[in-house]
Amino acid sequence: MRIAIVTDAWSPQVNGVVRTLQSVRAELERQGHEVLVISPERFYSMPCPTYPEIRLAFARTAAVGKMLADFRPNAIHLATEGPVCLAARRWCLARRFPFTTAYHTQFPDYVSARIGIDPGWIWRYITWFHWPAQAVLASTPSIAETLREHGLTKIRHWGRGVDLSTFGPDVVPDPAIRALTQGGGGPIQLYVGRVAIEKNIEAFLESDHPGTKVIVGDGPARATLEAKYPHAHFLGPKFGVDLAAAYAAADVFVFPSKTDTFGLVMIEALASGVPVAAFPVTGPVDVLKPGVGVMDEDLTAAIAAALKLDRKACADYGKTFTWEASARQFLEALAPVGLESERQAA
What phi, psi does 191 have (nearest 5°)? Predict the structure, then answer.
């Protein structure tokens, strides 16, 4: 099967959307499918205002359409709501090509957090963008319900997975992180993810549970937070085995975000045998269960309770999330491009 994935989020960006798409593409190709990714790197782009790590591509409909027509896909998936996918959306609609979309990011909340725009205005655009899709893929029941509340009803579940060959309970902990506990600095409280205002990291840094706070990741808020919270350890981004070793070194994983649709880092932490502390919001309420994580409006209380949980139970639960299952759900939701559509693309 030839599958075209169009996305405005791709490497070198580091976030859950990119990691999801890359992991699912790898699994699809392992199964023998041919996957074309149309991403911003193929076009001239500029840094996104207030968030330069994200590139906004100047993608013409004709250019994106030619890539799709040349590939002759059996199915087309538009992963994001940005300019590259807008061009693909226009091309598909003009030819009555079916396509699927996905709601990866609480974009209305992110924009509101960053520049103060009323989320309701952004939801109008989100609803307009996804309305023609044959299916809108959502990662959790809570997100599916949110989409339905905004009039989008063609929802399909698309879960997430963990690379169990990298993340697991037997990984050797990062010795440099464990060394931070010398002189009574434990327990290690870890955050992994973008260092940005919408991630609510200050709630974690303001919590007063004793121990050592470690932040793995980068983003536009890093310099400000690093200066404001000198007691915390900002280690920058880590990947692969280095990231796995960071998880393994932690005593508790803290997920302070209130705007994530899923929280891929939570299941990576769980697969590593690390319990999770979070707020009771979308993402954690769908991912966590008793015995592997604690949700509380008081994040300090959640951290204290999570530290008492059994690491083996966390690892056993974390390994139930696989990219094989995620890819299967993705495939089942795709809308096949029919023979008539293929003739129109020729």
Answer: -120, 135
